[in-house]
Amino acid sequence: MKVLQFPLVRITISFIIGILLAYYLSLSLTFTFVSLSTVTLLFCGFYYFSTIKPKRTAYFGIAAYLLACCIGITTQTLHTESLQKNNYSNYEGIYDKPHLIDCIISEKLKSNNYSDRYIASVNQIDQKPASGKIILNIKKDSTGLSLEIGNCIRAKGLLSKNSAPKNPNQFDYSKYLNNKHIYAQLYVQNNDIAISSKIEKSIWYYAARMRTNIIKNLEKNNFNKTEMNVALALILGQQQDITPEIIKDYQYAGVTHILSVSGLHVGYILIFITYLLKPIPNTKKGSLIKLIALIVSLFSFAVISGFSPSVLRSVVMFSFVALGNHLRRSVNIYHTLLVSILLLLLFEPAFLFDVGFQLSYLALFFIIWLQPILKTIWKPKHKFTTAIWNALTVSFAAQIGTLPLCLYYFHQFPGLFFVANIVIIPFLSVIMILGIIVMVLAAFDVTPLILVQLLEKSIFYLNKIINGIASFESFIIRDISFNTYLLISSFLLIITATIWFKKPTFTKLAFTLISIILLQITFLVNRKDTEIQEEWIVYNVARNSQITERKGNNVQLFTTDTSSNSITNNYSLTSYLVGNFGKLAKREKLQNIAYFNKNKILIIDSTGIYPKGIKPDIIMITQSSKINLERLLKYTQPKMVIADGTNYKSIQHYWKKTCLKEKIPFHSTNEKGFYKLN
Question: Are 313 and 263 in contact (CB under 8 A)?
Answer without folding.
Answer: yes
